[in-house]
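User: Please predict the structure of the protein below. I'd like the answer in structure-token form so I can feed it into my own downstream comparison script.

Assistant: Understood. Taking the following sequence of 241 residues as input:
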Amino acid sequence: MKTKMHKIATVFTGAALALAIGGTAFAEQIGPSFSVSAGLVSEYRFRGISQSDGQPAIQAGIDLDFVNGFYLGTWVSQVDFDYGNDETDFEQDFYGGYSAEVNDSTRYEIGYIHYAYHGSDRDEDYQEIYGSLTFSDLTLGFAYSDDYWAESGAFYYPYAEYSFSLPSDLSLELHIGLNLFDEEIFLYESDSYIDYSAILSKAFGDLTLSAAFIGTDISDRACFDTSWCEATLLAEASYTW
């Protein structure tokens, strides 16, 4: 998973940056502040598709909050695309953006993220711009890439999320996204798919435990003849300093 649009990430995907990119909260303080996170997820999924060949992954991130709404960060995860000897070992994302409140119940966010992949001779790097509007607990967002992963052409990603505060300090986040491609290169005989997730989380101080149900509407044949796109249950633990 990966929180923010850079996956649930930073945790499951995601989502992240599940990303998906959610809003950033800014506490009152004098100057910029750093936060560092590290976690273990039972499987790394991004926009519904496994990035770790169904295996666990270690993830970590660093964020710099400038207090005035601007932020920078980087996020790293193990990946496994099952290439064999020419294997991609890990992904590193670099991102920056701006988030601000319009009023007590409305905020917006805009930003840029670069996805870098290491370990393989394949050209897998790509970039996205993103934006979102949050109205109370509902977030509507959009991401665009001029040339998506592995040079698969232009990509568009509208999505919606809704967050619930539950008893016992539990939180539930529902997500649905529409992945649109200009060409049928990324998937076999398909130029679009839907991803979805439901994530239940609870914080114990700086430790957060999460469970997620994540999936897509992609068939195994379209999903590189693998089960990477099938609906599954995931678990994750992350710690933030």
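That's the full token string. Residues 155 and 181 are 5 Å apart (CA to CA).
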